């Protein structure tokens, strides 16, 4: 399709840019409220007509040569959108030799009024339909099986249809929410693979939902996420978003650093990385590299001075890091003796192993700006067990206006919450919020669509990054970036600012992966080379 025609077809919709501005995300309850309000002031079926048109337009823009089209339509309004799109596609593409077939599931008599209207209009227009896929191979599939209404496991014929959908090699356009995905949480409700076999895009309607961006959401949506607000964007003014997507990655701001001609290294902020057990000969497990990665990342992101404190005797501390000679290496004991932890932003944990446990109580009591990662998180449980009232330390830190950031991956979050990893992944926003509330801290729950939560605040869900980040050491890089982001702001700050700063660092971390252009995948150090 010519570029101009593509732009014409998609003019009223927006392709979501993973590095774009922060957008509000509405859960199913708010989305339904917005829908009901809009429906009340518009002529009957207007929203479904607009939804069907949007789907048909994007289908034609994306796959202009498709002539064998299957629409999987469920029994709710998501299916209604599919029926409507089928009619509109048959009307415009039929004269060009196209055939549109609806594979319909669920009882027609239980359909909501809009969906019934769309189905009846389709059958009156002669659209073929049945309870099975057509015998011919499709060159375009429209998934309108389950949308906002899914909140239980997909079983029986629905599960078989979903399995077909996930294994189908044909390009697939998902309507509103990929079938199988929970719109609120990003949980995957089906046994079918989350990662579809063929090319796939998703068109969100009316609102963007949090589940599209976290957990299984990114993989389920496919290569691109499009959004059409159906002309009722203003309907949500008084409704609180469930979350926001992360702000665009405007940090590190190289131009601002250049413009600060009268600046000096002290003004850029200090970071102290505590971690990196030495090799077995030095009494550790050989994780020095983790601390080095975090420290290099902090330096790369603009921190003025970065120290690495290793849990080893002075004789085991490397003289310097040949890859980043600006790093200052010393023993943990020396760093504490200098009270560095009271002045710098402390990034603790990265490869620290069991050596973190003895340091942790002191850090919690004395370090005003603390990022706890990996082994520091693992050490929290044993440390808390030795305290009479484990929650007091978090309250005290908050009352002093001190900063605490935790960066757990799902298994670490599960350990801290006393549940299993599956429970965290099924409710990523809730899990991050619960941890933030309990520990009075900013929590970055890692994984696809990192959630950045803070006490009594609306969480951010990160949109940047991709599967390239699934390799050893990228978590250490993230911890270092968060440290540098917090260190860059030396003036007064609010909890909201801190949450936003962590979200910016998370967004910048994802942007590193997206900027990777070479044929071979990057190791963690390549991302900050
Ligand atoms: N009413 C309208 O005009 C509009 C509707 N919209 C569409 O409507 C959708 C929401 O519609 P609904 O609320 O009807 O929800 P859905 O169409 O997502 O699903 C509801 C139906 O699916 C069934 N169902 C749920 N979970 C199931 C499972 N695991 N196995 C089998 N069946 C299951 C329910 O019993 C119900 O019959 C949105 O996702 C969107 O696509 C939007 O286009 C906005 C406009």
UniProtKB/TrEMBL annotation:
It comes from the Bacteria. It is an enzyme of class 4 (lyase). Its EC number is 4.2.1.136. Residues 31-238 form the YjeF N-terminal domain. (6S)-NADPHX binds at residues 290, 351, 409, 476. InterPro entries: Carbohydrate_kinase_pred_CS (IPR017953), CARKD (IPR000631), Nnr (IPR030677), Ribokinase-like (IPR029056), YjeF_N_dom (IPR004443), YjeF_N_dom_sf (IPR036652). It holds the Pfam family YjeF_N. Keywords: ATP-binding, Isomerase, Lyase, Metal-binding, Multifunctional enzyme, NAD, NADP, Nucleotide-binding, Potassium. The keyword Glycoprotein does not apply. Binds 1 potassium ion per subunit. Its cofactor is Mg(2+); K(+). AMP binds at residues 446-450, 475. One of its GO terms (biological process) is metabolite repair. Residues 246-529 form the YjeF C-terminal domain. GO terms for molecular function: ADP-dependent NAD(P)H-hydrate dehydratase activity; ATP binding; metal ion binding; NAD(P)HX epimerase activity. It catalyses: (6S)-NADHX + ADP = AMP + phosphate + NADH + H(+); (6R)-NADHX = (6S)-NADHX; (6S)-NADPHX + ADP = AMP + phosphate + NADPH + H(+); (6R)-NADPHX = (6S)-NADPHX. Homotetramer. HAMAP family: NADHX_dehydratase (MF_01965). In the N-terminal section; belongs to the NnrE/AIBP family. In the C-terminal section; belongs to the NnrD/CARKD family. Catalyzes the dehydration of the S-form of NAD(P)HX at the expense of ADP, which is converted to AMP. Together with NAD(P)HX epimerase, which catalyzes the epimerization of the S- and R-forms, the enzyme allows the repair of both epimers of NAD(P)HX, a damaged form of NAD(P)H that is a result of enzymatic or heat-dependent hydration. Bifunctional enzyme that catalyzes the epimerization of the S- and R-forms of NAD(P)HX and the dehydration of the S-form of NAD(P)HX at the expense of ADP, which is converted to AMP. This allows the repair of both epimers of NAD(P)HX, a damaged form of NAD(P)H that is a result of enzymatic or heat-dependent hydration. This is ADP-dependent (S)-NAD(P)H-hydrate dehydratase. It comes from Tepidimonas charontis.
